[in-house]
């Protein structure tokens, strides 16, 4: 029977599969010993694989990767249910209520559509939710709840956006670019320093430079993670061109000089630009 014609498994069956895998007596020993902490890295990895499938326009792959990501949600919910903390249904209920609550212009009053698009209505609703949970907004920092587990460039941009909302921001791109020059000069200055402390100083100054580069990206409206992923993909393409060109001569990169590979890199670069 063709894949499209066969009876498809349901979410309820997926929940049952996970419960079976986690059964202490008859389940999978590997799955049984997992915890929130040990599964969390896989959750992050699966989210990246979803993003990768989207970037490659791989729709079939996206279907599979979304399934893998859904499994992570089911996994965490199963662990929580075993401790009688919450069920998968509670996760579904919570996010459904949140989406309805945060979109009053869709589910309550269509006349608020313009307010939603032109004001900070979303953030105000989030603040109300925190207050309802007993969160003391007056005592909290605006950067308190930016997740530590985010990729560093993404977290840098989120921190910058939070601070910008309260007025701590450069007025435009020019002073940010000037800050890039300043941080680069500071990095150059410590690179030549002798002693054991120099590596720590270098790392510190390099971190400052990366942070301000994330700020440049924010002011330009560019996602720095996406930009770096694209740059990585470009490097892979061009280096593979180098390998292919050398292979035609029966050689590998180890057999070539830097000058040869640099020339082949420029050829690959020119070919890309010409389309």
What tags apply to this protein structure?
single chain, 275 residues, mainly alpha
Description:
With 275 residues, the protein is mainly alpha-helical. The radius of gyration is 25 Å and the shape is extended. Among the domains are: 11-102, MazG-like (Helix Hairpins, Orthogonal Bundle); 226-274, no CATH class. α1 crosses α4, α3 (36-55) runs antiparallel to α4 (59-82) and α9 packs across α11. The chain is built from 13 helices and no strands. The longest helix is centred in the C-terminal third of the chain and has 25 residues, at 224-248.
List the helices and strands and how they pair.
Elements: H1 11-21, H2 29-32, H3 36-55, H4 59-82, H5 88-102, H6 104-107, H7 113-118, H8 121-132, H9 152-165, H10 173-191, H11 198-220, H12 224-248, H13 258-274
Helix pairs in contact: 1-4, 3-4, 9-11, 10-11, 12-13
Provide the CATH superfamily of the domain at 11-102.
MazG-like
The whole-number mean of residue pLDDT values reads 91
Q: What is the chain-wise order of helices and strands?
A: HHHHHHHHHHHHH
Distance between the termini: 43 Å
- Tell me the radius of gyration: 25 Å
Helical residue percent band: over 70%
Q: Please, how many helices?
A: 13
CATH architecture of the domain at 11-102: Orthogonal Bundle
**Count of DSSP strands:** 0
CATH C-level label of the domain at 11-102: Mainly Alpha
Describe the global form: extended
Report the biggest beta sheet as strand number plus sense, adding barrel if it closes. none
Q: Give unreliable regions as ranges.
A: none
CATH topology descriptor of the domain at 11-102? Helix Hairpins
Secondary-structure content class: mainly alpha
> Strand share of the residues?
under 5%
């Amino acid at each position: 029977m063709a894949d499209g014609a066969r009876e498809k498994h349901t979410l309820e069956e997926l929940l049952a599969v996970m419960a079976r895998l986690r059964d202490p007596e008859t389940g999978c020993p590997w799955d049984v010993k997992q915890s929130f902490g040990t599964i969390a890295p896989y959750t992050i990895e699966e989210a990246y694989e979803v993003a990768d499938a989207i970037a490659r326009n791989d729709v079939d792959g996206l279907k599979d990767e979304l399934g893998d990501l859904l499994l992570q949600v089911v996994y965490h919910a199963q662990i929580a249910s075993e401790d009688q903390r919450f069920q998968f249904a509670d996760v579904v209920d919570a996010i459904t209520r949140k989406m309805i609550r945060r979109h009053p212009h869709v589910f309550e009053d269509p006349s608020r559509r313009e307010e939603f698009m032109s004001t900070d209505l979303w953030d105000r609703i989030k603040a109300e939710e925190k207050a309802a949970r007993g969160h003391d907004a007056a005592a909290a920092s605006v950067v308190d709840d930016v997740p530590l587990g985010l990729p560093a460039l993404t977290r840098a941009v989120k921190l910058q956006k939070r601070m910008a909302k309260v007025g701590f921001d450069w007025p435009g791109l020019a002073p940010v670019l000037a800050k890039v020059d300043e941080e680069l000069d500071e990095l150059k200055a410590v690179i030549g320093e002798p002693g054991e402390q120099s590596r720590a100083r270098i790392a510190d100054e390099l971190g400052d430079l990366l942070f301000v580069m994330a700020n440049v990206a924010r002011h330009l409206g560019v996602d720095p993670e996406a930009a770096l992923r694209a740059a990585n993909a470009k490097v892979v393409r061009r280096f593979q061109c180098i390998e292919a060109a050398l292979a035609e001569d029966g050689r590998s990169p180890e057999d070539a000089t830097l000058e040869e590979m640099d020339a082949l890199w420029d050829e690959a670069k020119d070919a890309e630009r010409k389309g």
